[in-house]
Write a structure and sequence with these properties.
The two termini are 41 Å apart. By secondary structure, this protein is α/β, with parallel strands linked by helices. It folds into three domains: 176 residues, FAD/NAD(P)-binding domain, CATH 3.50.50; 114 residues, FAD/NAD(P)-binding domain, CATH 3.50.50.60; 76 residues, 2-Layer Sandwich (Enolase-like, domain 1), CATH 3.30.390.30. Strands 3-2-1-7-19 form a five-stranded parallel sheet. A five-stranded parallel sheet has the order 9-16-10-11-12, covered by helices on one side. 22% of the residues lie in helices and 29% in strands. It is built from eight helices and 26 strands. It is globular, with a radius of gyration of 22 Å. α1 runs parallel beside α6. The longest helix is centred in the last third of the chain and has 15 residues.
């Protein structure tokens, strides 16, 4: 068992690794490095409850200082990794400090995709990634400005819903022809577009931001087709990518993310990765997957800890995700595959269930306000058993009957 484990990243994956190590009997030194000033906190409420003023910042904290001290987890804020010196089993921090490790867990998460446009430096241009971003943006939304959001992914749409709840006029500009293009099935996307439009959100599909105009403060935004839209506040919500820049030259194998096996081990001895930066070969899917979700971060954190403890535990949990927009709770489990048959089951005015059926099993469910369907389908996907396609196609069949 390792004497010193260094964990880069104090989000869900990093914290879970540390907690699971202690729960598993790890007696060595544990260093948890956070790049921000805050104690480990959860991000999902930032675009929803925090923006709307329903949560204070403290309510997002995952574990307090007393808990970390009691577990002998050395939490270091303001600690950003700059380089991995794998030959020496050392980590160099941005302040030049070198840390030696016996085991290293990389849970450094993702970094924002940024738009570099004329006017990006103007007052009123925001990203939303950290709790400080959310608190600053919340304050500005209180004045009910005209808000323009770049990107109709989950973050962009959650911000749109929160801003409308606060009385702001909201426009969303999206380069694709569908909202949530990367993750939502067409029927789910169409349902949520209609719901947003019902609440007064205006969409501009197939367009990109070209420039942001104003003197000191944002006043309007120019699109790539020459259209100009009034705006007092711009939120860039165009997604994230794994934070791999600091790992260049380390010898670590990467693709979209850090390549890991089913025990979260990388190609380097005693180096593990978990969470938004880890790309793994999941037993349910033919291609490696990179999953940005709380569930994945927690599950992989537990798997990392088990591997460091020498336990034979592999990661096989069904991926699941959720989003909350207005009165809609969107829940997704599993990953649809390109050749899947899509079956829409809906028997209520404000709910929908879409199933992605493979040749011999259920690959995924995406649903809105249908928790019973969601829970049953998650179990069916995990079992991986052959399915009765005719019964699944029948909207009168309760999914739990197929378990």
């Amino acid at each position: 068992m390792s004497d010193t484990t260094v964990i880069v990243g104090a989000g869900q994956a990093g914290l879970q690794t540390a907690v699971s190590l202690r729960q598993g009997g790890y007696a060595g030194r544990l260093l948890l490095l956070g790049s921000e000033a805050h104690l480990p906190y959860q991000r999902p409420p930032l675009s929803k409850q925090v923006l709307k003023g329903e949560f204070d910042a403290d309510r997002c904290t995952l574990r307090g200082a007393d808990f970390l001290a009691a577990q002998e987890i050395e939490f270091r804020p303001h600690s950003r990794a700059e380089a991995l010196l794998s030959d020496q089993q050392q980590l160099r921090l941005a302040d030049g400090q070198l840390l030696s490790y016996d085991a290293l867990v990389i849970a450094s998460g993702a970094r924002l995709n940024r738009l570099h446009l004329p006017g990006s430096e103007l007052d009123g241009v925001f990203y939303l990634r950290t709790i400080d971003d959310a608190l600053t943006l919340r304050e500005r939304l209180q004045a009910q400005p005209q808000v323009l959001i770049a990107g109709a992914g989950y973050i962009g749409l959650e911000v749109a819903a929160s801003a409308r709840a606060l009385g702001c006029k909201v426009r969303v500009v999206e380069a694709q022809q569908q909202l949530m293009q990367r993750s939502a099935l067409p029927a789910i996307a169409d349902f949520m577009r209609a719901r947003h439009e019902q609440e007064g959100v205006a969409f501009h599909f197939g367009r990109k931001l070209a420039a942001i105009h104003g003197q000191r403060q944002v006043q309007r935004v120019g699109l790539d087709d020459g259209t100009e839209l009034d705006a007092e506040l711009v939120v860039k919500g165009i997604g994230v990518r794994p934070d791999l820049r600091w790992l260049e030259g380390s010898g670590l194998a990467t693709a979209r993310g850090i390549l890991v096996d089913d025990q979260c081990r990388t190609n380097l001895a005693n180096v593990y990765a978990a969470g938004d930066c880890a790309e793994t070969q999941h037993p349910l899917y033919s291609e490696p997957v990179l999953l940005e979700s709380v569930q994945n971060a927690v599950s992989q954190g537990k798997t990392c800890a088990a591997a460091i403890l020498g336990q034979d535990t592999s990661y096989s949990d069904v991926p699941w995700f959720w989003s909350e927009q207005f009165d809609c709770r969107i829940q997704l489990a599993g990953l649809p595959q390109p050749q899947d048959e899509l079956v829409v089951r809906s028997d209520a005015p404000n709910s929908m269930t879409v199933l992605a059926l493979g040749a011999d099993r259920l690959h995924a469910i995406q649903c809105i306000n249908a928790p019973r369907d969601y829970m049953a389908a998650r179990k069916i996907i995990a079992l991986g058993d052959a399915i009765d396609r005719d019964r699944l196609r029948n909207p009168k069949t309760e999914l739990k009957e197929l378990l």
